[in-house]
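One thing: mind reviewing this one?
=====
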Amino acid sequence: LFSWRDSKGGIRPLVRDTALKHINTVFISYGWGTSYGHSFRIGGASFFLAKKVNPEIVRLAGRWRSLAYEAYIR
């Protein structure tokens, strides 16, 4: 699902830096600035908490080791 083909046709995993490079290319073309990736984790947490998903599940899925993420959710 999260992969791409390199110049030799091999399948490569889509890593964070590559994903952000492509996302920021789109963002910049629309004049939206850039993203550093952290906002996607916070956005995902906010979305699932708004859908009433158990906060402990959200914390584990987001790989947060503490409850610090609660300071960022919207």
